[in-house]
Amino acid sequence: MSGIISSPGVGSGLNVQSIVSQLLQADFGPQQTLLTNQQNGLNSQLSAFGAINSDASSISSALKTLGSLTPSYNASSSNSALVGATSDGTATPGSYNVSVSALAQAQSLASTTFSSPTTAVGTGTLTFQFGSYNNTTTPPTFTANSATSPTSITVDSSNNTLQGVADSINQANFGVSATVVNNGSGYQLALTSSAGTDHQLNITDSGSSLGAFTYSGTNGASTLSQTVAAQNAQLNISGIAVSSQSNTVTNAVTGVTLNLSGVTTSPVTVTVGPNTGAVTQALQSFVTAYNSFSQDVTKYASYDAKTQSAGILLGDPTVQNLVNLFQNGVVQRISGAPANYQNLMALGITANTNGTLSLNAGTLSTAMTSNYTGVVTALQTIGTQLGTTVNSMTGPNGIITARTNSINQQLTNIQTQFSDLNTRMQQEQSTLMAQYTAMDTLVANLKSTGNYLSAQLGSLPSASSSSSSSSSSTTPGG
């Protein structure tokens, strides 16, 4: 008699799944553990190299900034509230006494009084031209500003009110602002030009209906009245008289912009000196980037005696090459640099016992005071020299890229080994399950046969019953 086993172990009473699992673990578990440990280690290395590569990139960026340094000069003022000073970097060192006797101001004109902002004012065309007047002649002589072109405003039924004319002038955006002012008894159109005598207004109309808005000088046939006269800024720079159309004076001192805000009672000192702040910041950025690298090297490539644990990159030649490169860069001779600044240590860089660097700002400042261009040249040179080497190590063909590519290849190989191992485990599992299922079926059949025989034997008459029957048949009188 045979039977079918629907679930392994039912026939034999054994936990076939557990037995097979333990057998597989005994055969393949050590290999899985080995591959997993290798994978975890490589991933840790990859993460550490990611941090190291980021640090090296930051150092490379800082070296690029050093390599791009050029001598530049800042402008400062002893009284920036009255005379501000900025430099575009092309200025040469110097000190200037600046006195301001007048600020540049814009011409302002006003119309006659109208009863309302919505009062109709006529139609036609108003033409505006910037220039300058000679008001000593009759009529005044107007010289147009050759740097500007006339602007025409059309006044028709859509804008022929006092407010409409003001809005149209503002919308044209040609350097004149217009507003309607309530003077208490009526409304006037107020116009303001740009600062300077070259921005006085000449306004003509194409028809007599707009005659209330013309201007041709203070002694001319003007219907608009001048309320504020145009004026140039008047200043004196170290004994030289200067006139400026604007309160922003850009052409008096080469590379320096003076921003005039008030009339001075005593000279304001404007000083042009080396831009030491940019140099200090650039060198400090290098130190900061290097220290981040040093801290990660300590984290990943050193041995901690207290915890008796080694960093994941301890002894790694790639990391050691980078360490040697940067450390040598600090002390290496800077070719072409002045005699006093042959390496970064001469410019204030010092090495600390924990592997980091520090910048002595005082030492750097003293060096820049002594020879500003020499310091800039030295830093520019070391930035270029060391930066080129770093880029070759961190670029697409650099040692860090090669190292990370190698790790990624090893991880790929481990994934292949995991896949192969999994295939073998599945095959082994199928084989074992087939064997145990066959055994289970055999045991189940044997049990079934045994149960059948037991049942058949149990139905046969027992020996005692047969003996009793025989005695009863021979009793006398039966």
Which short descriptors sum up this protein?
478 residues; alpha+beta; 3 domains; 5-stranded antiparallel beta sheet; 4-stranded antiparallel beta sheet; elongated
Fold and architecture overview:
With 478 residues, this protein is an alpha+beta fold. The protein has 3 domains: 1-72 and 275-439; 73-103 and 234-274, no CATH class; 106-231, Immunoglobulin-like. The protein has 7 helices and 20 strands. It has helices spanning 16-67, 162-172, 276-300, 317-331, 361-394, 399-459, 463-472, and strands spanning 73-77, 83-87, 94-102, 106-110, 124-134, 141-144, 151-155, 177-182, 187-195, 200-205, 225-228, 233-237, 240-244, 248-253, 256-260, 268-274, 303-304, 309-310, 349-351, 357-359. The strands form 6 sheets. A 5-stranded antiparallel sheet has the order 1-16-3-12-13, with no helix packed on it. The two termini are 48 Å apart. Residues 1-6 have low confidence and may be disordered. One of its GO terms (cellular component) is bacterial-type flagellum hook.
Summarize the structure in short.
By secondary structure, this protein is α+β, with helices and mostly antiparallel strands.
Strand elements, count: 20
N-end to C-end Cα span: 48 Å
Strand content: 15-25%
Structural class: alpha+beta
Spatial strand sequence of the major β-sheet: 1-16-3-12-13
What count of helical segments does DSSP give?
7
Q: How confident is the prediction overall: mean pLDDT?
A: 87
Helix content: 40-55%
Q: Show unreliable segments.
A: 1-6
Reading the helices and strands in chain order gives HEEEEEEEHEEEEEEEEEHEEHEEHHH
For the largest beta-sheet, the strand count, sense and barrel status come to:
5 strands, antiparallel
Radius of gyration: 49 Å
Question: Domains counted in the coordinates: how many?
Answer: 3
Shape, per Cα inertia axes: elongated
Pfam family, one: FliD_N
Organism: Acidihalobacter yilgarnensis
Family: Belongs to the FliD family.
Subunit structure: Homopentamer.
